[in-house]
Amino acid sequence: MSDNPIDLLPPAVAEELTAAIAEAGIGADRDLVLRILATGAGLGMDLPGRLDLKIVSAALEEMRAAFALFAPYADVPKVTIFGSARTRDRDPLYRQASDAAAALAERGWMAVTGAGPGIMQAAVEGAGPGRSLGLSIRLPFEEHPDAAVQDEPNVVTMKYFFTRKLMLVKESRGFICLPGGFGTLDEMFELLTLQQTGKAEPSPIVLLDASGGDFWTGLRRFVGEHLIPAGVISPDDFDRVLVTDSVDTAVEEITGFWRNYDSLRWVGKTLVLRLHHEPSDAEVASLNEQFGELALEGGIAKSAPLRAERHDGDRLELPRLALRLDQFRVGDLHRLIRAINTLPSAV
After folding, report:
1. Considering the entire predicted model, what is its pTM?
2. CB count in 10 Å sphere of residue 157
C-alpha cells in the first residue's frame, strides 16, 4: 500500500484538490501542499472523533502562525533561552539571562523565548526591542509577564506544548538553559535527546548558572554517578554541554561553535560538512588521525558540492568535508565540529 496520502484518495478528489491549489495561486512546492490537503481529507475519511480533529486543526494553525513569525528573520542567528517563569527580577539568575541576551544581541543574534515572566522576560529585556521572538503558552495558573513583554509584536500564543517546543528548537542555532523546574528540565533534556539521537543538527547547548551556583554542577554529578555507570547513556554524551556560571563564557560557546562550521547535509549515506574556511591537506590528515574511526570507509576528505547540492543550489560557495559517517557515532559529531572550529585555517 502506498504511503502517499494522495494515492489513498478517490482520483476525482485528488484532481479537485490539485485544481484548488492552482486556483489559490500557489506556485511553489505544490506537491507538499497537496500532501497536506490530502492528509486532511484522508483524516476526515477515517471518521475520527471531533477532539482528534480539533487537535490537528489547532496544531496546524499554530505552526502556520509561528512559521510566519520567524520567516522575516530567517537569516538572523537565534539563541533560545530557557528558564523558570518564577524567577524574580531581584534573583542573580535574572541578571544572567538579561546579560547573556544583551551580549548576543550586540553580536547580531536574536533571543527566542517562551514569552512568559521570569527568565523569559529577562531575556527579552536584555535583547532589547525588535531583537526577540516569543512563543507563549496558554496556562491557567502562571502569572503573565509585564506590559513590556505582553506588548511585544513578535509573539505568537500557542495552546499545545508540542508545537511550542518545536518552534523553540527549530529555528535556533544555540541554546542557553538557566536553572528552573519541570518545564525547564523537560526542555533541556529534550535538547540533549535530539542531539544524542541525531534528530537535530549539532548546536551549542549552555547550562548557565548564577555566579558560584551549583544547580547544573549537581546535574553533571548525577550524570557521572548514576547515568553513565548504569550504561543508559554513553560516557561522552554530556560532553556536548557546557556548564558555566560566566556570561562571557556562555556567549563565546554559542558564537564560537559557528566560527568555522556552517552547516551539514546528508546526501544518501554521505555526510557533508560545509565550512567557512577551507582546511589544508595537513589539517585534513590531522582530523583523520583524531576522528577517522567515525567514518565507515574512506575517512574524512575534502569535497566539491555533491550532485544533490548543486541541483538545489545549496551553499555552493562554501568549502566542504565529506565522510561516510557511522550512524551509531552521530553523537560524536560535536567533537569533530569543535576540532574543525579550532583549525589554524579557521582563525
Report:
1. 0.91
2. 13
